[in-house]
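FAQ: What does the model actually see?

It sees only this:
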Amino acid sequence: MNTPEDIYPDFPEWPESWHGIDEDIPYGEDLLAAMRPFVMHLISRGLKKKTIRKHMGYLWLLGGEIIRSVSMDDEYDVPPVENLQRNVDEEGGPYCRHLDSEDDMRSYDATCRKLHKFLNL
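And it is asked to produce this:
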């Protein structure tokens, strides 16, 4: 287990899954590039594959919410790394409409807090 693709083989295709319009794809690719170092950090810490997979699932949801917001507000001029930093903080991440339970929301926010901490080292 050395790369994000070892855990989620479709990791490089996430931008395709996030997109609503064509402009979303290159933006999503840059967003994915901004997320990759965090996933590599999780791998380097020796976490179990199941744990990293769970965090990556929440990153996929986060990416989808960011792309949705960028597309709706026409914020393609905001660099993806900056947008990622704006969307996660010490409390968690943006509202995710795909989560049905409080437990899932807490886990999603925990991943976002870890990402925030990593981005602000």
